[in-house]
Amino acid sequence: MRPGLSAELWLVQAGIFVNMLGYGAVLPFEIIYLHNGRGFSLAVAGLVTGTITGAAVVSAPLTGPVVDRFGPRRSTAVAGVILAAGYTGLAFARTPAMAFAAAALAGAGNGALNPGQSTLLAALAPPDRRHRAAAVSRVATNAGIGLGGALGGLVAARGLPGFVLLFLANAVTYLIYVAVLVAVVREPPRPERSAGGYRQVLRDGAFLRLAAANLAVIAVGWGAFTWLLPPFAHAAIGLPTGPIGLLLAANAVTVVLVQVPVARLAEGRRRVRLMALAAIIFTACSLLVIAAGAVAPGPAYALLLAVCVAVGAGECFYTATLMPLTAELAPEGLRGRYMAALGFSWWAGLAIAPALGGPLLSRSPAAVFTVAAAASAAAGVALLRLEPRLPARARRTPRPGYQGGPARTGS
What we know:
disordered C terminus; Growth Hormone, Chain: A; mainly alpha; 411 residues; 2 domains
């Protein structure tokens, strides 16, 4: 279970955990805070929350050139400061205009944080350990969000003062992360800048196929099962909010327990096959959700609990290979742009799920997960067809310490 990371990488992972602890504390309560605490209508509160995701979609690709020019550590630190400013603004937003401005700032920071952070992890970790660094990052993220959500619920029970405290505490966690980056993490050597910029990224057919498949996988595995499954469980099955919260907790616990072992399992194996396996899991889980809507509440809850555990395992198979594969495809001087383009597809997938699935959910809950099953199945096929287009060196996850290329054992 020991991933063999450097002390510097462990410090970054600790910063990610603290960062996600604050983010997890506010994430479930953003709309509740704006509606109940500030008196905004539900429509306005939803639009403010959507602005965070929308701004992230816009800012992610703009961050790529900044990361390549100024380095991932500086870029990530600046993104953390922007996020701290945005969530501080949300804590004191008394009018919709103030809330929209703060949400746009927070979203811009969110979109900028992921490319810089992913590039930093890829630069600090040796190529044969990038998958392990990515796995530990996912554990830190899910553990932070899960624990933060539990603590946030206790603080939010205090009403408006509690909500304000949560948003300010989230801003402080971003600044703690920035302090870790600035004080104890070195800026990785910047390679020579590659000519072409995003034009070269857009000419990389293999990466574009990966990004397109990623959009569909994220829309289903992270978007539909996070934002659409809870209202489906409440409206179509009649589950109360308490058991629904336990479903999401089961997903987070699964990721925390399974991610690092899955990263070890991936060593020596074909990357796209593991990613396609995740897409197949999401397809099967979408069909199980539909089946849950047709049975009694007791069996339906058991089915949904199994779904959330399986989705967590699918997430582990997918993320164990996504970032390392992107880093392998990217020329070093363009790695920031590649990570930013991947971040764009990630945020776009997250935005698509509630934007398109929400209206459809009110008309036909089963149709939402039928579309999700079709989308993830198509993404799985696309991933399997991607492998012949990949460079030979990028097709398998390397074994740590292996010399002369990835191991040829495994499937």
